[in-house]
């Protein structure tokens, strides 16, 4: 049996934990892990009592796990007792302070030099000039930390308009030999949508991406819309670039027309400069490889981008810039990623791959995660229920489940109370209305004033009754829904 990346990570961690270490060192642990596994790791880290030293480019993960951030900059170590996001704010403040101090110092130096210049031949000022020269010599020059602002500069060309329906599948299935990965998928992508493919490792995200870009055979129906031109970033980069070409040749081979004159500029904005562009693809680092593939996507005006884990080898700044460029991109976007911070705000629809099917969730990535959590809880509950029925001697619930049950009971009681309150109101109103009815039924027994007030009362109470009825209906349906969801 072969374990997927996520499971191997869990096993490795379990092994480490059994040794009960004082400190755990993790170097990029979330690379290639799916969101569920990342969240599992976050929870694991929360309960772990020892120290954790973590190297990561996953911002959401860093923020959830760490409470201290170390920065090494120009041989100096800065130690911040805060999470990564807060550190970024403090770091910016520090740089601003350094710039201000630097400018003050430059001004002081300037003034001093002027003084020396003006009075250097005046005997009466000889002492002062001397002391100022010493001052300058002793002055420790303030340096501004270099933030390494070298980062990609990405701008996708405007996307030519495609048909309204960009991709459509009907009963699309895919098996590798005996392994069925996708089973009768129906799915539609409309022009301009920005969607994420998420799901556990091995659920078929890459498979469907490759089917859409027509790299893989399949069963069922797949329609690519009118005038759709697809740009593809593959998860497995080795399959895509020719290892024997140089960086320059890789772009030169595909570029046509005016863009040919801009290849060097494009490579430069993806941080390939000077001799770099003559490196062969086969010697490139992971990050360089990814950057070259992304650069390739700018050569043509694609209107559908299929990006399969494009951020895996990118540093945080490059990720931010890629995200910004994709936010501005006018075409249709399908993106496979496990990076929550990257997806947040970028996509407005999430497709979850699970058990050979895909399920649409409208909303951003955190909406999806919230819903997924609730669904998981329900699954666990349903399982617990079955287990309880089969076991005579049930194990006592842990505290969390106990609290959740208590919370549910409380909600149910409050919903039931609302229903019965409205029922009482209705009964009460019906009695009052029927009393008024009796009066109105015998108009000749009462004077006109009495009849008038009775009638206006009668209409008022009827209105109230209607209100109470619809309140009751709502309360009852809330209760029904709650009961259905919490069987
Ligand atoms: N060429 C192939 N031959 C046989 N099995 C394959 C092949 N490609 C993928 N698979 C299997 O199909 C399943 C789906 O793989 P796929 O790469 O689509 O998953 P994924 O959702 O992209 O996973 P990840 O999050 O790890 O990238 C996996 O079980 C994988 O092992
Ligand atoms: Mg994949």
Report on the architecture of this protein:
The longest helix has 43 residues, at 399-441. This protein folds into four domains: 5-74, Rossmann fold (3-Layer(aba) Sandwich); 86-138; 165-373, 3-Layer(aba) Sandwich (Rossmann fold); 399-485, Helix Hairpins, CATH 1.10.287. It has 14 helices and 13 strands. The strands form four sheets. Strands 9-10-11-7-12-13 form a six-stranded mixed β-sheet, sandwiched between helices. Strands 6-5-8 form a three-stranded antiparallel β-sheet, covered by helices on one side. The protein is of the alpha/beta class. Magnesium ion (MG) binds at residues 205-206, 235, 308.
CATH topology of the largest domain: Rossmann fold
Query: N-to-C terminal Cα separation, in Å?
Result: 37 Å
Strand order of the largest sheet: 9-10-11-7-12-13
Would you identify the CATH H-level superfamily of the largest domain?
A: P-loop containing nucleotide triphosphate hydrolases
Arithmetic mean pLDDT:
86
Ligand names: adenosine-5'-triphosphate, magnesium ion
Number of DSSP E strands: 13
Helix count equals 14
Rg over alpha carbons: 34 Å
Bin the strand percentage.
Answer: 15-25%
**Principal-axes shape call:** extended
Question: What is the CATH first-level class name of the largest domain?
Answer: Alpha Beta
Q: What is the H-and-E element order?
A: HEHEHEEHHEEEHEEHHHEHEHEEHHH
Helix content: 40-55%
Largest sheet: 6 strands, mixed
């Amino acid at each position: 049996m072969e374990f997927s990346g996520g499971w191997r990570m869990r096993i490795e961690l379990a092994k480490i934990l059994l040794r009960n270490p004082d400190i755990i060192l993790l170097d990029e642990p979330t690379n290639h892990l799916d969101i569920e596994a990342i969240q599992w790791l976050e929870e694991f880290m929360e309960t772990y009592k020892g120290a954790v030293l973590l190297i990561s480019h996953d911002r959401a993960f860093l923020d959830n796990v760490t409470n201290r951030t170390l920065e090494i900059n120009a041989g100096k170590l800065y130690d911040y007792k805060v999470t990564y996001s807060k550190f970024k704010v403090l770091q910016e403040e520090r740089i601003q302070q350094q710039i201000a101090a630097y400018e003050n110092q430059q001004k002081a130096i300037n003034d001093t030099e002027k003084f020396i210049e003006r009075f250097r031949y005046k005997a009466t000022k000889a002492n002062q000039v001397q002391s100022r020269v010493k001052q300058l010599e002793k002055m420790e020059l303030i340096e501004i930390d270099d933030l390494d602002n070298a980062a990609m500069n990405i701008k996708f060309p405007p996307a030519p308009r495609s048909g309204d329906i960009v991709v459509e599948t009907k009963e699309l299935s895919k098996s590798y030999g005996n392994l069925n990965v996708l089973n009768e998928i129906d799915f539609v992508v409309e022009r301009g949508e920005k969607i994420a493919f998420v799901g556990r490792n091995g659920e078929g995200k890459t498979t469907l991406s490759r089917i859409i870009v027509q790299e893989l055979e399949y069963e069922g129906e797949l329609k690519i819309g009118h005038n759709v031109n697809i740009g593809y970033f593959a998860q497995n980069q080795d399959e895509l670039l020719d290892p024997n070409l140089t960086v320059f040749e890789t772009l030169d081979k595909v570029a046509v027309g005016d863009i040919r004159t801009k290849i060097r500029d494009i490579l430069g904005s993806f941080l390939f400069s000077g001799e770099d562009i003559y490196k062969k693809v086969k010697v490139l680092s992971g990050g360089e490889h990814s950057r070259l593939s992304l650069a390739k996507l700018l050569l043509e005006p694609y209107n559908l981008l299929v990006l399969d884990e494009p951020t895996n080898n990118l540093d945080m700044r490059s990720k931010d810039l890629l995200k910004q460029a994709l936010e501005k991109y006018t075409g249709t976007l399908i993106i496979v990623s496990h990076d929550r911070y990257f997806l947040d705000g970028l996509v407005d629809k999430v497709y979850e791959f699970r058990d050979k099917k895909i399920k649409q969730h409208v909303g951003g990535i955190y909406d999806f995660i919230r819903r997924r959590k609730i669904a998981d809880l329900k699954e666990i509950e349903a399982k617990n229920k079955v287990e309880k029925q089969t076991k005579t001697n049930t194990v006592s619930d842990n505290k969390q489940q106990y609290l959740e049950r208590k919370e549910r009971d409380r909600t149910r009681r409050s919903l039931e109370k609302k229903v019965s309150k409205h029922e009482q109101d209705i009964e009460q109103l019906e009695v009052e209305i029927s009393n008024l009815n009796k009066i109105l039924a015998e108009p000749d027994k009462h004077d006109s004033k009495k009849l008038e007030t009775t009638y206006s009362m009668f209409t008022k109470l009827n209105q109230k009754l209607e209100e109470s009825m619809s309140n009751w209906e709502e309360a009852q349906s809330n209760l029904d829904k709650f009961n259905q969801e919490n069987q």
